[in-house]
Task: structure prediction
Amino acid sequence: MKSKKSMVMKLIIGMIFLLSAMPLAFSQSQVEDEGIRKLSLDKWHWMADKNVEILDDLFHEKSVFVHMGGAWGKTAELEVIKNGGIWYKKADVHDVSVNIIDNTAVLLNKITLLAVVGGNEVTNNFMVTEVYQKEGDRWLLLSLSFTKLI
Result:
């Protein structure tokens, strides 16, 4: 009998442990989710401010950028921002979804972008796909793609 009670107690203790760990796992996921959302929002501000030093640290060396007018890598994107080829003047973010898979985060941002392109101020609605990879304790942007919404 004592053995049966011991097994039941172990089972109950194990279940309590599992149930108590669930909120911790959820809160860690929630913290990670909020962190990547904030990083994405900060990125829009850094782009508006043409802060290429911070963006250089954020963009992965092999990152890619897809725009309505073409696609290019990190060096070209930083030059476009620095020289004002595209001035991401203001991004109004309407909706963000985050999907974190292992060390990769995929964000879908529905935005209205006020930009200056070729000296002309334009406003467009986009769905922007951002892909980040976690390296150590920081996220690096791998891809930024704009899809114009009708």
The longest strand covers residues 86-101.
